[in-house]
Design a protein that fits this description.
Blueprint (H helix, E strand, L loop, with lengths): L1 H24 L6 E4 L6 H9 L3 E5 L6 H12 L4 E7 L4 E12 L8 E10 L5 E8 L8 H24 L15 H22 L1 H7 L7 H14 L5 H10 L1 H4 L7
Helix pairs in contact: 5-6, 6-8
C-alpha cells in the first residue's frame, strides 16, 4: 500500500508537469483532457479549468463514494435525467443517467462537476457500466458525444500502451528513469518504430496482408516471422519480405542464404 501511494503521488506530479508543458507549448490549443479515476480530484480539475480546457475523467464507485451518494440524493429529488438510445443495426442499447452541478466530494470548497452514468447492453444482453465526471454540459443531445469521448481513453490505453507493452515492442516503465539519456532514447526509438508500423498498417497493403495472414493477427507473430525470414532467407526488399510472409516464401522465389 505504501508503494502504491508513492506511485500515485508520482503520477499526479507527472500530470501536473505534463499539463504545464502542454500549455506552454500550445497556449491557444483548445483541449478536452481524458483521464482515469486517479485524477478525479479537486487539484487536477482546478488546474485543467485554470488552463481553459475541458475534461472527461473516469469516476469509480469505490473511490468516489460521496459523489455517488450525491447522485442518489439528486435521483430521490427527481433531479437526475435519463436518456436511452437503441442501436437497432448493432442490436445494442445505450442507457444514460446524468446530472449537472454535482459536488465532487464533501469538502466545503469542492469542485462542482457534471456526472454521467452510462450502461451499454450488447447484443448478448451483457451490461457494461461506466461513469465519468466532466465540465461539459450534459443533456439529451450531448450525453452520447461525451460518452464516446470518455471511451476514447480506453481505446488509447488498449491500442497504444498495451500494444507497446505486450505486442513485442517491449516498452518498459523503467525507460522513464535513469541518470543519463539511454533509457529515454530507448523509449524514443520504440515510439518511432511504433509510428512507422502504424503508418504501414494504415497505408501499405503488403504490410496489411502480412499482419492479417492468420484469423487472429498479432504483431508478435509478425515480428517472429520477420526475424525468422531474415535469419534464413535472402531478402532483397520489404516488398519481398511482406509478400513472403503473406503468401509463402516459395511463391516469391526467395533463395536460401547458402553463404
Amino acid at each position: 500500500m505504501k508503494n502504491e501511494g508513492k506511485k500515485n503521488d508520482c503520477e499526479k506530479a507527472a500530470i501536473r508537469r505534463f499539463l504545464a508543458q502542454t500549455k506552454h507549448d500550445h497556449p491557444r490549443l483548445k483541449l478536452v483532457i481524458l483521464l482515469d479515476g486517479l485524477y478525479a480530484d479537486n487539484p487536477t480539475i482546478t488546474l485543467i479549468r485554470e488552463y481553459g480546457w475541458h475534461y472527461i475523467i473516469v469516476a469509480k464507485d469505490g473511490n468516489h463514494v460521496s459523489l455517488i451518494e450525491a447522485m442518489n440524493a439528486l435521483y430521490d429529488e427527481g433531479q437526475v435525467h435519463h436518456h436511452k438510445i437503441v442501436d437497432e443495426k448493432n442490436n445494442t442499447t445505450h442507457k444514460f443517467r446524468y446530472a449537472n452541478n454535482v459536488p465532487l466530494n464533501l469538502q466545503n470548497e469542492t469542485e462542482r462537476v457534471n456526472v454521467l452514468d452510462y450502461i451499454e447492453i450488447d447484443k448478448k444482453g451483457i451490461q457494461h457500466v461506466w461513469c465519468w465526471v466532466t465540465d461539459l454540459e450534459l443533456n439529451d443531445d450531448t450525453v452520447e458525444s461525451v460518452m464516446r469521448g470518455g471511451r476514447c481513453r480506453w481505446r488509447i490505453e488498449n491500442e497504444t500502451f498495451n500494444t507497446l507493452k505486450n505486442q513485442g515492442y517491449q516498452l518498459e516503465h523503467n525507460y522513464g528513469h535513469g541518470e543519463k539519456h539511454l533509457a529515454t532514447n530507448f523509449a524514443y526509438l520504440t515510439f518511432l518504430a511504433f509510428l512507422v508500423d502504424q503508418i504501414q498498417e494504415l497505408s501499405c497493403p503488403k504490410f496489411q496482408q502480412a499482419l492479417n495472414k492468420p484469423k487472429k493477427p498479432t504483431r508478435k507473430r509478425l515480428w517472429r516471422k520477420i526475424t525468422s525470414f531474415f535469419l534464413t532467407l535472402m531478402i532483397d526488399s520489404w516488398d519481398s519480405l511482406f509478400k513472403a510472409i503473406a503468401h509463402g516464401a516459395k511463391a516469391q522465389k526467395i533463395a536460401f542464404d547458402t553463404s
